[in-house]
Fold each of these.
Amino acid sequence: MADFMFSATCLAMPALTTSSNFNVIDCHPYLDFIDATAASKTPLKIEYRFDKYRIDDNLPSIQITKGNEIGLVLSPLLVGIVIRSYGWTILLGNNGIINKTLMNLGLIDRPVGLMYNVLGIVIALVHVFLPFMILPLMSALQGIDPSLTSAARSLGAGKLTVFTRVILRLAMPGIQAGCILVFVLSLSAYVTPALIGGLRVKTMAVSVVDALIDTFQWPFGSAMALTLSLTGAVIVVIFARLTRMKWKMS
């Protein structure tokens, strides 16, 4: 608990001023929260998968799995986020299903720490936000003309070349949209990090709520929220520029 005891200079902010924003940067505990937030969000940006999409040997085309697997992907959206987070506490706890199963199988001697750390937060957030990555990607893959992959194969391109030079590039809008959706949603996630991370791991969203509700430091909490919003916006713009996203003005 000593790691989360803040100095009086970090909290004594009488009004929302520019010094509130610098105070967020100067306080080392809140810099740790930024690190925890970044660590728990970075793996979510690479959670998209192409294992459900394959190129057929005879006729190269994108085969998209439907039916039960699509329902399985969308299943997290059918349950409230609070219920899902509590469900992960049952699975990841020291006396949870995962640790009990591994101990009964003799694979481990003591419970593995899957809760109250960044790993547990990442696992829970991937489950929560995976549909927001898969759905844009699936839409982009469905829009690819199978004749393009057939033409590439007829010109001597191998499966890997067809995937990297044709499919991946044509699916890039879906990848970009999914990455931005997942990043923005996970950046502002509060319930899952609060329940899975507890007091040991605090992200910026959790810290903002603590400052506004628990300690009633509204100016400082507002400064933290503003800092988080601006940081997220800058990262999204940089990502869009690096991936050469073409914004279409309607």
Amino acid sequence: MSFLTLFYGFRSGSVRDPFGHEWMLQHEIEKVSPEEMQKRWSAMLGNCQSSKEAAKYSPVQIQHTTHTMIKKILLGLALIIAIICVIASFQSDDMNITRSATTTATPEAVFKIVNDFRQWDAWSPWSKLDPSMKKTLEGPSEGVGAIYKWSGNNEVGEGSTTLIESKPNEKVGMKLEFVRPFAGTSDVQFTFTPEGTGTKITWAMQSKKPFIGKIMGMFMDCEKMCGDQFLEGLANLKKIAEAAPKA
């Protein structure tokens, strides 16, 4: 590794990586006026022992070196991007998330809350991410055909949830359609299973990962992030169901 200060105010040098590639690096350490640059260049020529040594530091050679360095950097970035894309292409297309919680409330009490979109803001983990989120309800107030639409900040995005299945005290099924930040669809199910004197609530979601989702999954655990939000929502749902008046 060797570095030297050049007449035009840059510190320049080269390094060799473990794979044998040589990289040229430059960093500006001072602003040099054209007059001062010419003065330094003339002085350097006078101190050089040969024209060959002077040519090594000529503006033309320095420009060539800079262009070579930029090309190597761009090629290196292209190679890294290509490797990431290849690895991402082998990732699974499917994303399945399931979380469960138990409550002392009855299956009927929990079912009534989930089956009614009017009550979702009280327990949904996403509502508090954007208090000013715009929400609209369409269709019946609860049960099959009810539609919940939202549009908010970048954390909640925009989309709609359509209730497509409703088995009293047993199951609620939904179709999620996302508009942003990424377009996509997901299938969601809430199941309510009697357990002792209470209920086991299971929240499950299945979706297909877009290619950008596969790339993001290489750098973050999307399953855990979404699963943690499910657990938060289940905890809220449990609290509300247990506080509801007994029938």
